[in-house]
Amino acid sequence: MSKVNALVLAGYGLNCDNETAYALELAGASARRVHINSLIDGSVGLDDFQIMVFVGGFSWGDDHGAGVIQAVRLKTNLGDKMLEFIDKGNLVLGICNGFQTLVNLGLLPGFAGDYKTRSIALTFNDCGNFRDDWVSLKVNPSSPCVFTKGFDFLELPIRHGEGKFYSGKAVIEQLFENNQVVIQYALPDGNPAEGKFPFNPNGSINDIAGICDPTGRIFGLMPHPEAFNHWTNHPDWTRDREIMKHSGKKPDSNLTTGIRIFKNGVDFLARKNP
Amino acid sequence: MPYRLEIALNPDFFDAEGEGIRQKAFHYFGLKLSQVRAINILTIDADLTADQLKTIQTEIFTNPVTQTSSFDPIPVEFDWIIWVGFRPGVRDNPGSTAVEAIEDILRIKFKPGEAIYTSKRYCLKGKGLTPEDADKIAGELLANDTIQRWKIFSQGNWDPEEGIGFIIPKVMLDHVPCVTSISIDSDETLKRISDKRNLALNPNDIPIIRAYFLDSKIQAERAIVGLAEPTDIELEYISQARSDHCNHNTFQGLFHYQDLSTGRTEVVDNIFKTCIKEPTLALKEKKPWVVSVLWDNAGAGRFDDDHYYVITGETHNSPSNMEAYGGAITGIVGVYRDPMGTGKGAKLIMGGYGYCVGQRDYNGDLTPYLHPRRLLDGVIEGVRDGGNKSGIPTTFGQVLFHPGYMGKALVFVTAVGIMPAIVDGKPSEQKRTSPGDLVIMCGGRVGKDGIHGVTAASEVFSETTPAGHVQIGDPYTQKKMHDFILEARDKGLIRFITDNGGGGLSSSVGESARFSNGCEIELEKVPLKYKGLDQWEIWISESQERMTVAIRPEDLDRFLALSKKHAVESTVIGKYTNSGKLHITYNGKTCAYVNLDLLSSGFPQWEFDAQWQEPEKRGLCEPVIREPNNYKALLTDILSRPNICSREWIVRQYDHEVQGTSVIKPLVGAGRDVNSDASVIRPVLESEKGLAFAQALLPTYSAIDAYHMTTCTIDEAVRRLIAVGADLDMIGGVDNFCWPNIQYDSEDNPDGKFKAAQLVRSCRALRDICLEYGIPLLSGKDSMYIDGYLTGRYGETHKVSALETLQFSTISVINNINKCITMDSKIPGDLVYVLGETGNELGGSEYYEHYGYVGLNVPQVHSRQFATLYRALGSAIEKEVVASAHGIYRGGLGVHLTMVAIGGDLGMKVDLALVPACVQRTDRPSIRVDRIDTILFSESAGRFIVTIDPENRKIFENIFKGLPCACIGVITDKSGDLIIIDSKNRGKSKTIISILVQDLKAAWKKPFGDLI
To answer: Cβ contacts (< 8 Å) between A98 and chain B: which residues?
Structure first.
């Protein structure tokens, strides 16, 4: 089996490209960081890849709405090529600034194969500031999302100033109806955050932290799975280690939650193209 | 014709920005607003068709879900409207990205002079809001006069058709660039011109400068290139290079030091050489991990066989006092260029900060340019945007409130980078320019920004400080350049690289040309933001986000192609030579021709009188306090003091996890809200090695003796790393001095001699402790003149000088991050130990400050004993028998036991009778401890609180045999009490304190708990 090739966008103020590529490698993919301009000028083509990752950062400084200018540039210069990429059954992942870009491109929510309409906003946090914190997330077991298979609860860091998920009532209802709401902010015990700060860190409607398209192959989320690539990334790791020592256990050396999210995607493609 | 697009959130949509302003107006001024809505405005000064305008409106600038927009003013309810826009020439980052997006989507190019300007219109509603209130909100909350202007509209004078009108802050300089010759007929003439042109030449330098230009041989050489008298650009170059900021004249000065207690006088020559350079070189000999120190933009240490880490720190005080946000963002983005310009270029991996400001709720009579609260808010936000948008984790920082910083607040910024040990087959830490190499300027363009910034930093802040030196850093442009530089480095294209910071091209080209011994610069090639800059302005402008790079001519095409891919502007502006001359031309005509070695020869040392008097003889003594009986209230109140309480709101707005490297975060514990002793990252993701980083600031001890301030500060910074698992032998340091003016003046600086003596003592302490602990100084900077003149109630002015301040940063490689330790208590039943002796060292303590005293018994560092203890703790952590470790810092044992308990969200019971205490010391009998308040609040250095699993007791105690180490209690149940007893019954009752840990936490979190 040849390796799954992952394209990780870089440049123009994006800043999570290195660790995202690292996470994909840990998950079994062959990852390549590609400057947005190399994609635009055609020196790198989408044909060689099966996963495209829109990473976190501040593309174009986020000056006119997070992810807005990145979306404009990709739509203007790449447009149909991205749609072809999706048509082939490939995967698209958008993390933080990448999620913001996906909704501004219209790749999400992607109702009924419409990958062009902007119907969702990720806007300024209700708390009025950028925030770095770990959040608890409830996973929708009925979602078609390929990345979250096997999870019912996650802990990941969020780091954003514009993560408030917002849309009109009809869109929200349809998202739930289609099981496109993949992850929601929760209390540490797994119950819904119900808007309560800081568990819902930004005031997102219905605690929505991440959604997928109806196929489950396009996934956008505000939290950063790539920043949980080693067990020492978790804020409780020194506490957990001590508790395990008391019960005579060794720390869990398996892949972290963050890496398993990427691995789900890589495994999906490996199964699809054996 | 210009167009104006207004963009607003839909009326039913929550306006987080507006709400923030509404709350600030109440908290700052007590003004009750019922609503604030913000409208973004783009003024488009470009020829676009109606269709084009429609396209950019819908495709770029209006979110279809949340926003509405219009080319006419959007009707939003208001009682007052405040419009705020930039002044001409101020960096407008969103304006530039708007142009980029428009050019892309319309596939057009803006013509020269065309631009987009962003501004904001705030619609305020509030009953009974007066014009004065609106003015206050505009001038003191929404806008800063130095970079912005504003207009206030009442309902009466708002024209709903016209709106704000068309305000275009275009720079128009109706000026033909010209070079001016400067007369040097006498020292007085040159002095007069120096003052007039704000050159800040030291009077002692003037004869040397004149002698150079009057030398007949020099004159003959100059005549050949068409020059006679010095030109303005030449004098500006010399002035920049000779400024205290660039040349560190103070530290290299000659001190006439007199100890009044002993009557002894001595001459102390060049404290930089004797206290910083020599000890560091001596340590470099002993420590093979020290790679590069004392010459480059940052120092380098070995991370592993394949990587070096680099570190440096600096301050950005003067600009931040004028425009807090702009000053601070320029500071952090600026210090991030130092690692980029170290060796052949390093990747940025971590940042730190330190803010020293007046009390946030100050309401006294003095009126600083910016109120401390506004200043602090602006500084916090500036470093937030600068760090977050650079994609660099900000993992550690400190805030310190003290009235001394009302005169000048301090903004420390620290940068850590990493680079491969070998680049293109050659050592990465080495670089040089060679004759024939091209001089390239990369990144931003040059404007009038920051002209005379360096010399302004070398002057005391007053109402006449030019506001023109305030800038707004642009992390977006710099991030693009950072990515570009790293790729160019890895392709082996970079021969030499340095940043354009203080002094601009003058400094970066001047310094890089010393390697090849000459350069020829064609100044007209430097890309400008707007026309009309004089040659000297281009040469010394401090416009940000620029690097100077040397490359081989044959690499030019590859370098420029890579630059284009990364959307970074790079321009060849000249070449390096070996002529011995700095030769600058403008359109072929020479405007500067100076010997490069002029600066390294012949200038006189600065001289200072320093006079030391012992604290006792200055009238300091221990206060007379009888022991308190309500320790519960006392501890609770001390936890709520501004310098002790939680500042979580700052930490949370800084991205401290980007790059995916976080190991020990700035906030740790069960509630993830207690400050960790140090931060640890895993900068090479494939490796299990880490970098630990911490900082310390203890200026209050300077009120007694800056010698001990210095040793204690360094000890704390070291101890912080030891607490997370660092090895003492691997620690490197960075010293950042901020000192008030030390030049004695009978009227203006009557205690200047004392401040000079404090500096000498501080540097000697730095030397002593660094040699004893074995800490090489990887980097360091000094910022003098932390004084200000503040107007009082009656129109009088007061000179306010800050305490002598040193921020010390420590960094260390961690061999195995999996063994790192955090400070929070872990499991009920774990034993609590105190390591190190507690003495009666309350001088300068938080406890005394709480009562308004200074005291005398300042903590002292006994480095040899301490080092043994630190090695023992290191060994215990290495053997994995430690559950938590935490240094005892400001506030003493009482405060830090509380921190350990809060961190674990567990109870704790301890007996103070068991705390290792100084019962007798022959050398310092006065520090004997026999009181509860002394044990609880003394700030003796060299101490830790450690918790361990009782199973490890034997191994642990064996390691500490013969050292001050005692088990003082036990960790108890979740959400339990902190119980402090004294089995010696020295208090009123045996139980000194019994209080819910939750209540202590609430008190500790309360002061700034509402801030987000």
So the answer is: none
